[in-house]
From TrEMBL:
Keywords: Hydrolase, Lipid degradation, Lipid metabolism. This is Phosphoinositide phospholipase C. It comes from Gymnorhina tibicen. It is an enzyme of class 3 (hydrolase). The lineage of its organism: Eukaryota, Metazoa, Chordata, Craniata, Vertebrata. Its EC number is 3.1.4.11. The gene is Plch1_2.
Amino acid sequence: SNPLHREVHQDMEQPLCHYFIASSHNTYLSGDQLLSQSRAEMYARVLQAGCRCVEVDCWDGPDGEPVVHHGYTLTSKILFRDVAETINKYAFIKNEFPVILSIENHCSIQQQQKIAQYLKEIFGDKLDLSSVSTGDPRQLPSPQDLKGKILVKV
């Protein structure tokens, strides 16, 4: 691939909502939506390919450990913790622009608290905990402002 294609040649100082963002749906799946394997490595693959928004479908798992899989199907389950650790490892290898975790939450309060704990523990200072008023999208920070940050969208 042409290395020039990896460089950003545009103004990255506008509000985040002014940009098209490369997003992944059912990121964890290695194949079809009904029977395939869920794999944490899929997050590494898409992040290195330039994706900046990944989907994480969270469900209650055994032993109080939230899991990621495509609900009501036969796809395999992976630990939320493993997904978060993989995202943390690969989020900023190819570029520093923010990564958005699109979390589909199906968890009990107890397992939601575990997810919040893992997000704080694993991402640390990378986790952007500033709250944004959704009333005026022009007030959103820019990709430049958010370099190196993990955003959570639920």
